[in-house]
Design goal:
Elements lengths: L3 H33 L7 H14 L13 H12 L3 H6 L3 H15 L1
Helix pairs in contact: 1-2, 1-3, 1-5, 2-3
Amino acid sequence: MRIFIPAVLLFAAASASAADEQQTQATYINYLCSVAVEKPDASADYFLQKIKELSMRGESPSALNKDEFDQETAEEVVNSWQSLSPEQRKQVKSTEGCQQLMASEFQQSD
């Protein structure tokens, strides 16, 4: 029984971490899409900077538990966007359409 409890706690922590990562990924997709609709062929550096700016803007300066910017996840989101063909990127006419396209891209890569 003693081994079982730590194993359950470890599993719960890993599950929470995966959920946090998916939430961060979804948030960064939203940020990218809000910018990509206007500039679908911008550089990776441009998108990374905008995602970082938007994620920091969402933080309250007085927040006790500030989320750290996840560079790796942001790069993953940007790389996924840039792996789309120019035609696919230009077909995106709305933030919602971009989010759906990106969600399907990430589902295919899982």
